[in-house]
Amino acid sequence: MNASLNPVTRHNWTLAEVTALLQQPFNDLIFTAQTVHRQHFNANRVQVSTLLSIKTGACPEDCKYCPQSGHYNTGLDKEKLMEVQKVLEEAQRAKDIGSTRFCMGAAWKHPSAKDLPYVLEMVKGVKAMGMETCMTLGKLDQEQTQALADAGLDYYNHNLDTSPEFYGNIITTRTYAQRLETLSYVRDAGMKICSGGILGMGESIADRAGLLMQLANLPEHPESVPINMLVKVAGTPLENAEDVDPFDFIRMLAVARIMMPLSHVRLSAGREQMNEQMQSLAFLAGANSIFYGEKLLTTGNPQADKDMQLFERLGIKPEAHEEYADEVHQAAIEHALIEQRDSSLFYDAATH
Ligand code: SF4
Asked: Which of these ranges, 95-99, 147-151, 343-347, has the smallest mean pLDDT?
């Protein structure tokens, strides 16, 4: 369902409201988030994506958290754009381990005219396997966006990273306005948006609230909202950043769930550093999407096995994408009916 047409989505959040949500007593916040989650999703399903880096390192951007930036020396092996056939082989392996979406990332400022045709072939090939496709290739112009949409790309990932106010402390080579412009092109071309941010870069609570406000106040909510915990990589300017309180991270997931009730909230980078208890708390707060990483495709997938064992212990099953579409649609209809009867819960959550 188009989120902007749904009566449960709001696009006029204020900083005071979002900050108040982030600062609620923990148990109240989790209860509200889980309640909202159950109104829109099967609480025991988690969507599983696989991420593959199709071009690694030497990125001209200067994102201070990123080991792929050419501005920092992190000892990362640089790789050219992967061959189409190799990407398709990796996609098949991702499908075999239960992923329903294949995300391909390239460390570029923007795709070049030389590389774009190969990227389009990748999208077509992965689509033909029956998987959803997602790409993250940096800034796009309108023509490139349309070409990706025409090739069958389902999702485009482009993170806002943090609040507009804090953004300049983290990235200087691309503006916040350019990011929003790329997101608007993606939306106009009819694709779904994956956009979120990172905690642990030295941002304040107001910056976290500001990020969520930017995302939720877009004309339509991003269908996928990755919330990342900074992975501190030696050689990047943030290698010694202060740790985030794990409960504050869970709070961020919970507030994202409340503000964007129809979106998939993705427990994203940093998950491998979280213990099982924290991951289960994240699911309780409304996170319902995870990544299997790239390495996992080439090392016998020990992490994938571990993830599946955790799912089993928690009674969670990976979500099939047909199931998602039906469930969200049905839940949205049901919720609209409930809303007419009793709107107190959602608006209480928003204002207290
Ligand atoms: S644009 Fe992407 S790959 Fe490049 S430095 Fe920033 S986060 Fe890293």
From this structure: 343-347
